[in-house]
Design a protein that fits this description.
heterodimer, A: mainly beta, six-stranded mixed β-sheet, B: mainly beta, four-stranded antiparallel β-sheet
């Protein structure tokens, strides 16, 4: 069983829709949770970061972490065609090496 | 300011050949990482380095070697390439600090990848 599970999609939504992306994980030691966006043939770029449980909002993006359920979410409001990309969740324990454990990514397509 | 630059962008090898992938960062980052990305598997850590002259194994290190002779460069070597090493390879870098909460200001910055096919 993978440490981090993520539905690969693809997820297709119309422009303006609210998008919900999710990951579950099994390692209760994870404390730092991130969402990366990856456009085709590009490297991942950090979108959102959350420490421990709670919500964090940044513009149209909201990240939620529920450590009791080992479940994290990313919500995108008023989705745009430019949001079409693969979204990777990532998480890490507070260790010196700071390496990340990634989900396999969800491909999102926002239709104009 | 280029960030993280990976060389080459594409390469095709034959089984048994060797090659070196180069990662260069101009952000004065202490930490550097090599990941591979395969369909349905996400990114998996191969090796990482916490400073010049230091390297350590990650999740999938077999068949790879690394070197960090200069702070800004992190090299990934394949001594005898195998078809199972066909993948997209990503390098990343980040700051280090003893302050735990400062991690929020230290995202891993990724290069745009090297696409490697081994026939």
């Amino acid at each position: 069983q993978k440490e981090v599970e993520q539905d690969p999609g693809p997820l297709s939504v119309p422009e303006g829709a609210i998008v919900s992306l999710n990951c579950t994980y099994s390692n209760s030691a994870f404390q730092y949770f991130m969402w990366y966006r990856q456009y085709s043939r590009k490297g991942p770029e950090l979108l959102m970061y959350t420490y421990s449980s709670g919500n964090k909002e940044d513009g149209r993006f909201t990240a939620q972490v529920d450590k009791s359920s080992k479940y994290i979410s990313l919500f995108i409001r008023d989705s745009q065609p430019s949001d079409s990309a693969t979204y990777l969740c990532a998480m890490t324990v507070d260790t010196g090496r700071r390496a990340l454990t990634f989900g396999s990514g969800t491909r999102l397509q926002v239709q104009p | 300011n280029a960030g993280v630059t990976q060389t080459p962008k594409f390469r095709v090898l034959k089984t048994g050949q060797s090659m070196t992938l180069l990662c260069a960062q101009d952000m004065n980052h202490e930490y550097m990482y090599w990941y591979r990305q395969d369909p349905g598997m996400g990114l998996r850590l191969i090796h990482y380095s916490v400073g010049e002259g230091t390297t350590a194994k990650g999740e999938v290190p077999d068949g790879y070697n690394v070197s960090r002779l200069k702070k800004q460069n992190f090299l990934l070597g394949l001594e005898s390439a195998a078809p199972s090493q066909t993948s997209v390879y990503f390098c990343a870098s980040s700051y280090s600090t003893g302050e735990v909460r400062a991690f929020s200001n230290q995202p891993q910055h990724f290069g745009d990848g090297t696409r490697l096919s081994i026939l």
